[in-house]
Amino acid sequence: MSIALTKGRSARFLFALPIALLAMGSIDLSADTNLDDTLSREERQKIDLSNYRVTDTNASYFDVKARMALLEQTDSTILLQLSDKLSMGPSCRQKTNSEPITTRGAIPGFYPRRTAWELATGPLFDFEDSVSNLAGSFVASGDIYYAECLVHYLYRWAEAEALTDFVYDTAQPQAWFASESMLFAAAMAYSIVRPFIDGLEEERADIEQWLQGLALQHSAVPGPPQDSCCNNHLYRRALYATMIGVLVEDNDLFRFGVSAIYSALHDMTEEGALPLEMSRGRRATHYQNYALNYLITNMQVIHRQGYDIFDLEYEDSNIHEGVDYLFQILDDPAALGDYAPQEQYTGFLRDPQYFTWMEIYLSHFDHQRMASLITRARPTYSRSAGGHVTLYFMDPDAQEHIYTDERRQETEAFRGLSN
Length: 419
Known about the structure:
The protein is mostly helical and 419 residues long. The protein has helices spanning 41-45, 64-73, 77-87, 92-96, 114-141, 144-159, 174-193, 201-219, 232-248, 251-267, 275-278, 284-303, 319-331, 356-362, 368-374, 389-393, 406-413.
């Protein structure tokens, strides 16, 4: 029986993986597992997406000018606190003096070697924090200093041809995975500031050429057909492809990003489960949420190009079914049925980076359960997938104060953390 089951068929099956195989982004499916009902890379490439094209190269993933105007007038305590903190941004000299990463290197797996992984990825995360914080400081302060600093910072990396030589090995794909988030961190931050920059034409041209080249090089690696060709890592590659496609008006990259949305909806079960994420055993709930983080953020980029992507129905599925299913299994793990063990890991709910997509979703739709949950997580921040998302998306009337009642937080928002 296949992992993904099309609409109208029974969507209950017994599938479990040894925990040792749950290395981040790498799922070793058994040889007798039938993947016929999931969309292959080749099938995805055949979808006619010719109607999708870049319409506004200066459209970031939110209306930066309108948001800056709102922040100047708001009396929201949360937004004011964020703005005040970010307005005192980092030292540009310190940022531009940091060394770009130009050496080849492999990165150990996340789950089997967590400490080694953290040491290896520290410099990569510094890059993501740097670009995200510079963009946030510009939005919060309106000071062009931070926008120009971001351009100078990225230019140093582009001039050094950073990240162009990464290790890819199917048995150790972490360097490839890490490159994904660095690309969309850079692209999303740059998209915020570029329309406000006068001059620096040479720097901007080099940055854009560098980003486009990296996106083409990185996305040319399809990933193993059993997993990262088509699971959350496809959605991560799609996010940088869409954003960089917008920046450089590359319709092929843009359509690659759009194709991931179609792929996810094609694979979605009748309940709204993403099958390749459900295959993660005790982390199935985490990966359903993790996948939505990139799908929803990508849809926001596409939406800003004028497409009603949030309303897309494909193969009788829509993204709202995936969202609702996440909250079903958060509220009642029994809703997982035979997809995964009911003793689910929920420690991800402690980390605000996993809530950023909810901020974006709530800027479009009402969702009472989501609106309640996110109040315990604000301010949300992702060093790569959107940066200071609460600052950019939260309705000023949604919440007045940061949630500080830790006892209530433990008992209401983060149930099941011992699992």
